[in-house]
Write a structure and sequence with these properties.
Elements lengths: L1 E3 L3 H10 L8 E3 L3 H11 L2 E2 L11 E4 L6 H10 L3 E4 L7 H13 L3 E4 L7 H10 L7 E7 L12 H4 L1 H17 L8 E7 L2 E8 L2 E8 L5 E7 L4 E7 L3 E4 L2 E2 L8 H4 L2 H6 L11 H19 L11
Parallel strand pairs: 1-2, 1-4, 2-3, 4-5, 5-6, 7-10
Antiparallel strand pairs: 7-11, 8-9, 9-10, 11-12, 12-13, 13-14
């Protein structure tokens, strides 16, 4: 495995590689000093970004988002399996270019979203498959603003829709239905580091709250005529159906419970829950519509519409 980037996310992927059955062979970043440090910790060699994927079968892209598309295209042309950290793309145009690059190959493109590969979310999807279609899905992500590397001080500038939206929208669509029903309209708002997104789907409304203040917590809930399924991702992971706890067995290792190990171990396999290029484009389109709605005081917007 090769890693583009040497910040916090890159370090987590490097730590998850060995338990996932992978070896970190190369690390590259714009800041050579940080790349050398991470390469030394991982027992890898430091390479120039232009040399990626440096012969590795897997390339993890964990750099500032502006460089994601270029690194992804380079990895795909070299035949690597490219895993891109969220937020994946700067805009819908980049997401569309990534779809085309994935189709051209010979490599394959996947979008990272670690919670989706966690034992808790896998069990939640099993429970969701046994329920009727929900009429309402809700969720919230409240996390401290990142204070490392290029993300320090960006929370107010980027806003919660950018930093937290991909995870929230993806997991909400998972609970909406196995084939991700069409998102017809999006409304959103933001104030400083707090925000919200409403999605209108056929027969279903999704409400999401996002922010960088208050106590850290991540939860999602699907409510239908037959049951209410609630997933507490943090601070204390848990799963309930109609208020009754459901046992979720798994490792105590935080890299496993948060999905980082299984995300890498399952790449390309039958249980792979990373996102494909079209799913990343869909979520990026929804978030673009949310940003446009928030800029217009919550005016409804259609994903993919110019």
């Amino acid at each position: 495995m090769a890693i583009a980037g040497a910040g916090g996310a890159a370090g987590i992927h490097a730590a998850a590689a060995k338990p996932a059955g992978l070896r970190v062979a190369a690390v590259a970043s714009a800041g050579g000093r940080s790349a050398r440090a991470l390469a030394g910790e991982a027992g890898a060699r430091r390479v120039d970004p232009a040399d990626l994927p440096a012969g590795a079968a897997v390339l993890v892209v964990a750099t500032p988002v502006a460089s994601h598309l270029e690194l992804t295209e380079r990895g795909l042309r070299a035949g690597a399996q490219v895993l891109v950290e969220s937020p994946w793309w700067t805009d819908v145009a980049d997401a569309r270019s990534a779809v085309e690059a994935d189709r051209a190959g010979p490599g394959t493109l996947r979008g990272a979203l670690n919670l989706r590969s966690s034992p808790l979310w896998r069990r939640a999807l099993q429970e969701r498959s046994q329920l009727d279609a929900p009429g309402h899905v809700s969720g919230a992500i409240h996390q401290p603003a990142p204070d490392w590397g290029h993300l320090r001080g960006r929370a107010e500038v980027d806003g919660p829709l950018v930093r937290l939206g991909a995870t929230a929208v993806t997991l909400a669509l998972d609970l909406a239905g196995p084939d991700w029903p069409e998102v017809e309209r999006v409304r959103a708002g933001r104030s400083g580091t707090e925000g919200w997104i409403d999605l209108e789907l056929p027969g279903l409304v999704v409400h999401l709250e996002l922010g960088h203040s208050g106590e850290p917590s991540v939860w999602f809930q699907a409510a239908g005529d037959d049951a209410v399924l609630r997933v507490e991702c943090s601070p204390v992971p848990g799963l309930e159906r109609n208020g009754a706890p459901i046992d979720v067995r798994g490792s105590a290792d935080p890299l496993t419970t948060t999905g980082y190990v299984d995300q890498l171990a399952g790449l390309g396999g039958p249980g792979d829950l990373t996102l494909d290029a079209d799913q990343m484009l869909l979520v990026t389109s929804v978030l673009d519509a949310a940003e446009r709605s928030a800029a217009e005081d919550g005016r409804p917007r259609t994903p993919g519409a110019d």
